Amino acid sequence: MTSEQLLSLLSETWTSWSELCRVTKTPQAELARALRELQVQGFPVMVEEPGARLAPGTPAPQILLPLLRGKLGRSYRYLGTVPSTQDVLRAWSEAPAGALVLAERQTKGRGRMGRVWESPPGNLYFSLFLGEDVDDLLPLRVGVALVEATQVGYLKWPNDLLAPDGRKLGGILVERVGTRVFLGVGVNVEIAPLPTAAALREFRSVQRATLLADFLWSLESWLSEKRSVVFAAWKKHSITLGRRVVIQTARERIEGLALDLGLNGELLVSTQRGLRRVTTGDVELGAAQDVEDPQIGQGQA
Ligand code: ATP
After folding, report:
1. Strand ranges in the chain using DSSP code E only, listed in sequence order
2. CA of 110 to the centre of ligand 1 (A)
3. Residue 287: its pLDDT value, please?
4. Could you tell me the residue ranges of all domains in the chain?
5. Ligand 1 pocket: which of 107, 117, 123 to mutate (most atoms <8 Å of CB)?
6. pLDDT of 87-133, one tens digit each?
7. Ligand 1 pocket, CB under 6 A
8. N or C: where does the chain have the smaller number of CB atoms within 10 Å of the terminal CB?
9. Residue 160 CA, ligand 1 centroid: distance in Å
10. CATH no. for 61-236
């Protein structure tokens, strides 16, 4: 019996040793070894006197798939410890659109520009293959789906979900390889691995499988939503617009007031030198300010 088969027999409630032995036709000592091996591979398997079970809310296929309501995630690879779910998905050459890879832990999780995404056990780390038919508003669409699913926090342009106090709850990574689009998402559900990070558990109790299913269902509708509706929803959840910002781009530092989003999802910033359209950069948020700013309309960079 493979470890995948053994994993598929477990549920969120205890399965007794006698039942496991009977179903697998395997002696208890051998099963105990195989279950320990699953733990070593990074799966949240609990092995105790009554028998074995998965930690409640574990997004194993037998728990996640019945919760799915749409097409996303139907092709699913559930993994223990991997370097990066983005890399596993990119190497999955037959992955159909909507394919999902999720890992319990990443040793080389990444954010934008090769930055590290800390990925200890207890959180959600997954990648979704979105095929080729994806527009430039994807990060906004994903952000709205994420904040709807978590029901906590605000969106920081371009790719973060922040807790109400400004700590980071989740991140979105969009990678394009040729015309193929790979979406990576990390959400701190149980563990905040940095002082600047927050965990959803601090605000709301939710099981990971439920949260993931809610997100996939929400994303499916936001992916086909009209652009004007996406803009309106993103702005409703934004913590960026109407704030002073300092943005570090590859070339320069831009300081001003974040006014609005442009037609392609870029950030419109009112600066002393006029209106700037920022397509990417690191954003530091400052104080809130009235957006009726005298700089509006003074030209574009
Ligand atoms: P910043 O948040 O500094 O503006 P960014 O939005 O570009 O940067 P990402 O590329 O999305 O950041 O994510 C990487 C950064 O997020 C890391 O440099 C680190 O500061 C922070 N980080 C890493 N892991 C986590 C995590 N699990 N939770 C919250 N923040 C994290």
Report:
1. 15-16, 45-48, 51-54, 76-82, 100-106, 124-129, 154-156, 160-162, 168-177, 180-187, 243-248, 253-261, 267-271, 274-278, 282-288
2. 9
3. 82
4. 3-54, 61-236, 243-300
5. 117
6. 999 999 999 999 999 999 999 999 998 899 999 999 999 999 998 88
7. 111-112, 115-118, 159-160, 168, 171, 186, 188, 193-194, 197, 282
8. C
9. 8
10. 3.30.930.10
In CATH terms, the fold of domain 243-300 is: SH3 type barrels. (2.30.30)
Residue 154 alpha carbon to ligand 1 centre in Å? 15
Quote the pLDDT of residue 166. 94
Q: Which residue among 118, 126, 189 is best mutated to probe the pocket of ligand 1, counting the most ligand atoms within 8 A of its Cβ?
A: 118
CATH node for 3-54: 1.10.10.10
Give dist(CA 230, CA 70) in Å, integer.
20
pLDDT at 1: 76
Answer yes or no: same fold for 61-236 and 243-300: no
pLDDT of 276 higher than 90? yes
The tens digit of pLDDT for each residue in 244-267 reads 999 999 899 999 999 999 999 999
User: From the CA of 112, how far away is ligand 1's center (Å)?
Assistant: 8
Query: To test the ligand 1 pocket, which listed residue (86, 107, 108, 116) has its Cβ within 8 A of the most ligand atoms?
Result: 116
Q: How much distance in Å is there from the Cα of 167 to the middle of ligand 1?
A: 10
Cα(243) to centroid(ligand 1), Å? 20
User: CB-based burial of residue 246 (10 Å sphere; 0-12 exposed, 13-18 middle, 19+ buried)?
Assistant: middle
Q: Token pair for residue 173? A: 């990574």
The whole-model pTM stands at 0.94
Per the document, the length of the chain is 301
Q: What is the DSSP letter of 154?
A: E
